[in-house]
Structures are given as C-alpha cells and as structure tokens.
Amino acid sequence: QVQLVESGGGLVQPGGSLRLSCVVSRLTFSSSAMGWFRQAPGKERELVARISRYSVTYYADSVKGRFTISRDNAMNTVSLEMNSLKPEDTAVYYCAAQRFTSSKYDYWGQGTQVTVSS
Question: What pLDDT does 20 receive?
C-alpha cells in the first residue's frame, strides 16, 4: 500500500531551523499534490504548506516567509524547510498526498514532532 514516512522533527530553540522530509512509496508521486499539515495539542489540524504537481506552492499566513516547501520527483520526496521557528510552531507535522483525480488528501504519514522551546 501507499506509504508516507516523515523524518526530521525534533527539539529546536526559538529562531532555529529544521528540515522535514517525507518519502512516498507506491504512489505516482509526480502527478500528486503534496501537503504539510500540523496539529498542536488542543487545536485542529491545519494546512501549513502545499505544492502542486506543477510545483505551485501555497503557504498559510502564519508561516509565509519562514517555511519553504519543495519536491524532488526523482526521489519521491517532499520537504519542508522551516526557519525562524517560534514556540507556536510546536506541533506534530504530517505530510499528505492528494492523487491527481482526488479532491481531498488521500494518504497521510504518521507524523513527526516539532518542539520549539528554549
């Protein structure tokens, strides 16, 4: 079955940086849109960034200018570069895949914890 495996989470001080990666298998990656979501304790899951099959990007206002989403179709990988991290960025981060024919995200990773704290 389709698998999405995230990595790169951890503990970082405010102002620091982290790079998350998500490797996708058993999916036509190049024709899929990919998204990064996050969910903080007691809050709803929110879309952080998205990249289309044409590499058109979208960012939530809260991360615009600090986060960068990218994809490598040869490696079936989507990444999220996170800079100038703030305590409010603390959450479990999930990558998700939307098939070309779908109107929703069809597949999800297991999540990786990002904690921003001094």
Answer: 98
